[in-house]
Amino acid sequence: MLAEVSKNVFLFASQSKGLNKAAKKWGLRFGASQVVAGDTIESAVKKVQELNKKGLVCTLDHLGEFVSSREEATEATEYNVKTLEAIAKAGLNSNLSVKMTQLGLDIDRDFCVRNMCRILDTAKKHNNFVRIDMEDHAHCQITLDILSELRQTYDNVGTVIQAYLFRAHQDVKELKGIPLRLVKGAYKESSEVAYQEKEKVDENYIRIIEEHLLSGSYTAIASHDHHIIKKVKEFTQKNNIPRDQFEFQMLYGFRTDIQLSLVQEGYKMRVYIPFGNDWFGYFMRRLAERPQNVAFALKGLFSK
């Protein structure tokens, strides 16, 4: 019960515009620097270089979401373009992840699509891939609609499917052939649209992973759960699924020992690296996901 209360508190805080605004002035505090790779492109590039040397591939995410003005969205688009240019210039093995609410989705759909096209054109120029992060359920269908539109022109774009949503399995079926990152889900959703019990989320997560792998589609399994990872290894071996058809993904700063062991075993392991000053919402959702993360944050705070 206490864990559920703390989860709700952190999820509520993650959506507070006031707290988010204040956090931009605080800088990376409360242990956030352990899971956010600095507030500039330069700091993010340095982290990717360090991880690439260890055999890890990456995806960079310039943090930010739910912007309220065209100016903010245009600025975010420019920053993502600069990030792709920096990845290419430094010769990094890293993709880019973006949130469409950061690019103006809540302001004007067509405006957001134009911003996405700018980013994808840059990525294509550098032979890179862009992942559209999935946000809350309210943005799920429009995200998939825009993805479908973009895929008519671009083959270097994919998205994320969240296992806690009832619709996840059907979505995965309909997205056969499209590179997907499969996750459990980190937003607070109602019982009308999402499973509330961990066991059911886990069950659906395995179900959608197996569905996408068996369809021959490229699959990114984003999980820190060693039980899930073990099941995926066993399933791919049993079904003769080649290792170049899937990868494991984890968040920067979490379970680094498992990340490195997967590389040593010959698996592709991608680290999701967030950076930027708009870190508060992301950090609160990480604290909400697992009670252990709170202790992790406090350790970071008092070790400064």
TrEMBL record:
InterPro entries per UniProt: FAD-linked_oxidoreductase-like, PRODH_bac_arc, Proline_DH_dom, Proline_oxidase
Domain Proline dehydrogenase positions: 44-295
Broad enzyme group: oxidoreductase
Record's keyword terms, sorted: FAD, Flavoprotein, Nucleotide-binding, Oxidoreductase, Proline metabolism
EC code(s) of this entry: 1.5.5.2
Transmembrane segments: none
A GO MF label: oxidoreductase activity
Reaction(s) catalysed (UniProt annotation): L-proline + a quinone = (S)-1-pyrroline-5-carboxylate + a quinol + H(+)
Required co-factors: FAD
Pathway it works in: Amino-acid degradation; L-proline degradation into L-glutamate; L-glutamate from L-proline: step 1/2
Pfam family, one: Pro_dh
Name recorded for this polypeptide: proline dehydrogenase
